[in-house]
């Protein structure tokens, strides 16, 4: 599920909680709306708001940690790509096809991440530019001296590291950086909080309008 869909669902749930509170205000007996009852409800809502703030901080910390990890993986992959290109360049002219394949693979990936107006996502990269093909091209090289053998060995190790990083990032792409159970609990507590607002607030646009604006600006929209 996309982050926009999750944000819309969270907004609908929280706004629905506030409207439900306004509805309950009209059907509850008067003794349920007394000052003593209101004070007790305020204490309970203050406790729930504190726990909601703690859960929100955990969600933000988890998202920040996931972003930092993937950012470091991207930086490491970029460094390994440059290193592999330089190793192949130092190997000699025999490594030019592998370098050209490496350049084509990088260009295809960049085009998919930052496509221009003429890019068509259905145009997949050819098999010759796949990381596995580059690894095979390096392995097929026939070194003629110790320097070339050293360059080939280092290039194979770097290509292996790139393949590992690629599959690791592909596996992580299927995982959500936000723990769904925590998000569900947070939205549920926010519904209770805003339902209490609607329970003791007068039902007019002056109250409903700012409450809706506050929910639109809430951090839940960033999920």
Report on the structure:
The protein is mostly helical. 76% of the residues lie in helices and 0% in strands. It contains 7 helices and no strands. The chain has helices at 3-27, 35-91, 96-113, 131-139, 146-172, 180-200, 205-216. Helix 2 runs antiparallel to helix 3. The longest helix is centred in the N-terminal third of the chain and has 57 residues, at 35-91. It is rod-shaped. The chain starts with a helix and ends in a 7-residue tail after the last helix.
Keywords:
rod-shaped; mainly alpha; 223 residues; 7 helices; 0% strand; disordered C terminus
Write the layout of secondary structure elements.
Elements (H helix, E strand, L loop, with lengths): L2 H25 L7 H57 L4 H18 L17 H9 L6 H27 L7 H21 L4 H12 L7
Helix pairs in contact: 1-6, 1-7, 2-3, 2-5, 2-6, 3-4, 4-5
Report the count of strand segments.
0
Coarse morphology: rod-shaped
Please compute the radius of gyration using only Cα atoms. 28 Å
Structural class: mainly alpha
- How much β-strand is present in the residues? under 5%
Number of helical elements: 7
Largest sheet entry: none
Mean pLDDT: 78
Give unreliable regions as ranges: 119-129, 217-223
Could you give the order of the helices and strands? HHHHHHH
The first-to-last residue Cα distance is 11 Å
Determine the fraction of residues in helical runs and give it as a percent range: over 70%
Q: What does this entry show, briefly?
A:
The chain is mainly alpha-helical and 223 residues long. It contains seven helices and no strands.
